[in-house]
From TrEMBL:
Cell compartments where the protein resides: Membrane
PANTHER family in the record: CYTOCHROME P450 84A1-RELATED
Classification of source organism: Eukaryota, Viridiplantae, Streptophyta, Embryophyta, Tracheophyta
Residues given in the record as heme binding sites: 377
Keyword annotations of the record: Heme, Iron, Membrane, Metal-binding, Monooxygenase, Oxidoreductase, Transmembrane, Transmembrane helix
Entry keyword annotation includes Zinc-finger: no
Source species of the chain: Gossypium laxum
Keyword Heme set for record: yes
Protein name: Ferulate 5-hydroxylase
GO-annotated molecular function: heme binding; iron ion binding; monooxygenase activity; oxidoreductase activity, acting on paired donors, with incorporation or reduction of molecular oxygen
Membrane topology label: Single-pass membrane protein
Length: 440
């Protein structure tokens, strides 16, 4: 396309070649003009080239931002699921916009984990900035393919990019400055019980970025304000739309397949009982619920196309792939590959009850909703926790019907293609209370 070589990978064997066998060559991420500009020239983790900086950033994410020890993130999800149950309970018997309710759940929990703020003040503005970023990330820009046409800019993308980054600067600079101020007031910083991701990142803050390959994380990486802003954007992007879309798809698929819904709710009744809410300790026993969520991720991977870029010339299955080629791994097509999956387009959670069926931990290339190899999703555990919590509570606390006597087969299941692939139309559903105990 123009000056760019594009390669599409649509089956598990080729994906294995790229993500495992030659992982070192395919570990870079391509960045469009929009992405480079909006991530402060790849100052983040998602688009940073593979190398010492990226390796230390990945370590920081796994050990600090998404670690199970960061209890605040997990707690914010539990609190927001409680709020969701309350909000749904207040609307029983009415058709409600579940897509909107679910998006608020993920937005609030990620916002709180990142900024430590439960207040709604400023949140709407931040969501507007996020939505504009999302559109700009996905927009077609002729200059990405034919660089010398950059001056033309018929869509006015350059102005929109400047405005979007300016809005983000203003918003996050204020938050970072407040945190720095709070840190000064508290001497050595807040106690661990009250930190958010900005606090965690500020412990690595310096005017000049620095990176070396030392084992001691604190001495091996220093982050500038641009790094901190770009990483916060990664977290907000990676954790809001993707998780919300997976929860909404899970509910949609179950409403379209009432027999499967019945089976999941039957399991919840047997394992948990109708006289209490689901608790974390129940999850391991909810086998069929887990199968249902896996089947949802197979049919609706959070990011349908994983983008990689070659660091040098490569040969895959006899094909020459030049350096700097853009490689798109089509996880959507791989999850529906007829050679790997029986009746691939049908929603059948029971397929995951069989022995030896692929799992999504990253080593079965027939099923890679979180990617695989070095560039797999560092926030996978937190995202899965939110998905488990939300779907289990919604199915256990309520029974669900489609509005206005709509038949399951009439439910529109089309999606929108972009960086993520959410439902084209929000899911509307009618909840009725199912438990015999008070919901809160």
């Amino acid at each position: 396309m123009g000056f760019l070589h594009m390669v599409a990978i649509s089956n598990p064997e080729m994906a294995r070649q790229v993500l495992q066998v030659q992982d070192n060559i395919f570990s870079n991420r391509p960045a469009t003009i929009a992405i480079s500009y909006l991530t402060y020239d790849r100052a983040d983790m998602a688009f940073a080239h593979y190398g010492p900086f990226w390796r230390q950033m990945r370590k920081l994410s796994v050990m600090k931002l998404f670690s199970r020890k960061r209890a605040e993130s997990w707690e914010s999800i539990r609190d927001e699921v409680d709020s969701l149950v309350k909000a749904v309970a207040a609307n029983t018997g009415k058709a409600i916009n579940m897509g909107e309710f679910i998006f608020n759940l993920t937005k609030n929990s990620i916002y709180r984990a990142a900024f430590g703020s439960i207040s709604q003040e400023g949140q709407d503005e931040f969501i507007r900035i996020l939505q504009e970023f999302s559109k700009l990330f996905g927009a077609f820009n002729i200059a990405d393919f034919i660089p010398w046409l950059g001056w033309a800019d018929p869509q006015g993308l350059n102005t929109r990019l400047e405005n979007a980054r300016c809005a983000l600067d203003k918003f996050i600079d204020t938050i970072i400055d407040d945190h720095i101020e709070k840190k000064k007031r508290n001497g050595d910083g807040p106690d661990d019980g009250d930190t958010d991701m900005v606090d965690d990142l500020l412990t690595f803050y310096s005017e000049d970025a620095k990176v070396n390959e030392s084992e001691d994380l604190q001495n091996s990486i220093k982050l500038t304000k641009d790094n901190i802003k770009a990483i916060i954007m990664d977290v907000m992007f990676g954790g809001t739309e993707t998780v919300a879309s997976a929860i909404e798809w899970a509910l949609s698929e179950l409403m379209r397949n009432p027999e499967e819904m019945k089976r999941v709710q039957q399991e919840l009744a047997e394992v948990v009982g109708l006289d209490r809410r689901v608790e974390e300790s129940d999850f391991d026993k909810l086998t069929y619920l887990k199968c249902t969520l896996k089947e949802t991720l197979r049919l609706h991977p959070p990011i349908p196309l994983l983008l990689h870029e070659t660091a040098e010339d490569a040969v895959v299955a006899g094909y020459q792939i030049p350096a700097k080629s853009r490689v798109m791994i089509n996880t959507w097509a791989i999850g529906r590959d007829r050679n790997s999956w029986e009746d691939p387009d049908s929603f059948k959670p029971s397929r995951f009850l069989r022995e030896g069926v692929p799992d999504f931990k990253g080593s079965n290339f027939e099923f890679i909703p979180f990617g695989s190899g070095r560039r797999s999703c560092p926030g996978m555990q937190l995202g899965l926790y939110a998905l488990d919590m939300a779907v289990a509570h919604l199915l256990h606390c309520f029974t669900w019907e489609l509005p206005d006597g709509m038949k399951p087969s009439e439910l529109d299941m089309s999606d929108i293609f972009g960086l993520t692939a959410p439902r084209a139309n929000r899911l509307y559903a009618v909840p009725k209370k199912r438990l015999v105990c008070p919901l809160f």
